[in-house]
Design a protein that fits this description.
This protein has two domains: 163 residues, 3-Layer(aba) Sandwich (Rossmann fold); 153 residues, Rossmann fold (3-Layer(aba) Sandwich). 48% of the residues lie in helices and 18% in strands. It has 15 helices and twelve strands. A seven-stranded mixed sheet has the order 9-8-7-6-10-11-12. Strands 1-2-4-3-5 form a five-stranded mixed sheet. It binds nicotinamide-adenine-dinucleotide.
């Protein structure tokens, strides 16, 4: 019995199985035929490459790299590249399809892709990482490009990695091609507003949800899990609008102040002490229990699988704004629906990042750069429209917001495939 319980929780926590379950439900509700379901499930292209690299100590090592282009029906593939010792082709494949749905929800002209290199960046020098990145780029060079597939940073890769990819690609093409990747440094064709984009997208969708309930943002209490790029930025921007960030949860504990925490002060405190704990004018609280604090908005922005069938019934949030990818399991969805929690699903809530990546690609291709105000204004327009599209589907088909987001995405991608026709 114990074994069964463990394996069923393990299964529940598998984000790829969760994505499959949601795909199936949305396809069913849309009445998609079997043929179209097969097309939508099958990655357009999967590439596995060997990356021989000379290490600093003179040894020759061979790393494995992947790039999966799940769909190019609506435009070039788009998605990050991650470096981690446990990256698998299965994981990259699932993440690539996730990107297809996310780009479709916000209606930007991209398909979905993802890449990975099996390596442990913690034991590699900068020089070794550069050689791995350049050789990986060279190995997949004919499969990437501004019109083909546009990588971006993901776990353990950053703007320096993107600069190396851009340079390697450009050297081969004998011209500088900035639009081959996004997430670049600002003076190498990066975009203003990219760093804040995902958090800002969370804020914009959360504001829409508050409006839906006629709640004044100034009276909204927010609980944030994960005080990094997404959670930290969202908290900062939310506080700027008068929302009260009452609880922040990190991996080593949580802090709480019912009157609202000073977000910038908390960031400084963490920078100085290495932890959010023991912040003046806040109480240290239990990190597990903190997730169940009564609030208007709960923003999980740390990792996947935090809201499960085991704890969903304890949530006391009105709105769940999913900053992280896959923070809620499929089994928890039903419990949240029964409790009338208004879910802003990850493929909508955190799509601000890929939207500003799209802006970066547009600016690079135009060779004309926008100021931050223009970037933020256009991001807001896209996020608000996407929120309305998703909630419109939810009303029309009488489904929850997550199913609606998947239905919208599947509808848009399958429509593009039908319109283009099947080339034979
Ligand atoms: P990050 O590393 O900047 O921040 C994550 C934060 O969560 C860190 O402060 C970390 O200490 C904390 N954390 C880790 N484990 C925790 C735990 N168990 N409990 C509480 N806190 C924990 O990462 P990020 O870029 O902010 O990404 C966070 C999530 O958002 C990930 O799921 C990521 O895939 C997703 N996401 C990020 C972007 C983006 O643009 N950065 C875009 C879309 C989705």
């Amino acid at each position: 019995m114990m074994v069964d319980a463990t394996s069923s929780l393990e299964q529940e926590l598998n984000p790829w199985l969760a994505a499959e379950a949601r795909f199936d439900l949305a396809a069913e509700k849309l009445g998609l035929d079997d043929g179209m379901r097969k097309v939508l499930r099958s990655p357009a292209r999967e590439i596995t490459v060997s990356i021989p690299v000379m290490l600093d100590d003179g040894r020759l090592e061979v790393f494995t790299g992947y790039r999966v282009q799940h769909s190019i029906a609506r435009g070039p593939a788009k998605g990050g590249i991650r470096y981690a010792p446990d990256v698998t082709l299965d994981e990259v494949r699932a993440l690539a399809s996730w990107m297809t749905w996310k780009c479709a929800v916000v209606n930007i002209p991209f398909g979905g892709g993802k890449g990975g290199v099996v390596c442990d960046p913690t034991v590699l020098s900068q020089a070794e990482l550069e050689r791995i990145t350049r050789r990986y780029t060279a190995e997949i060079i004919e499969f990437i490009g501004p019109e083909i597939d546009v990588p971006a940073p993901d776990m353990n890769t950053n703007e320096q990695t993107m600069a190396w990819i851009m340079d390697t690609y450009s050297m081969h093409h004998r011209q500088t091609v900035t639009a081959v990747v996004t997430g670049k440094p600002i003076n190498l064709g990066g975009s203003h507003g990219r760093t804040e984009a995902t958090g800002r997208g969370c804020l914009i969708t959360a504001l829409q949800a508050l409006q839906h309930f006629n709640i004044d943002p100034a009276s909204a209490r927010v609980v944030v899990q994960g005080f990094g790029n997404v959670g930290g930025m969202a908290a900062k921007l939310m506080q700027r609008l008068g929302m009260k960030i009452i609880t922040v949860i990190e991996y080593d504990g949580a802090v709480h102040n019912p009157k609202g925490l000073d977000v910038l002060g908390l960031m400084k405190h963490r920078q100085e002490t290495g932890s959010i704990l023991d912040f003046p004018e806040a109480e240290n609280v239990d990190r597990e229990e903190a997730l169940f604090t009564e609030c208007e908005i709960l923003l999980p922005a740390a990792k996947e699988g935090v809201i499960t069938s085991q704890n969903a019934h304890k949530l006391r949030a009105k709105i769940l704004c999913e900053g992280a990818n896959g923070p809620t399991t499929a089994a928890a969805d039903e419990i949240l629906a029964a409790q009338n929690v208004f879910v802003i699903p990850d493929i909508l809530a955190n799509a601000g990042g890929v939207t500003v990546s799209y802006f970066e690609w547009v600016q690079d291709r135009q060779g004309f750069f926008w100021n931050e105000q223009l970037v933020n204004g256009r991001l807001e327009e896209i996020m608000v429209n996407s929120f309305r599209d998703v909630t419109g589907y939810a009303q029309k088909y009488r489904v929850d917001n997550r199913t609606a987001a998947y239905m919208l995405a599947l509808d848009r991608v399958s429509f593009a495939i039908k319109l283009r026709g099947i080339y034979a």
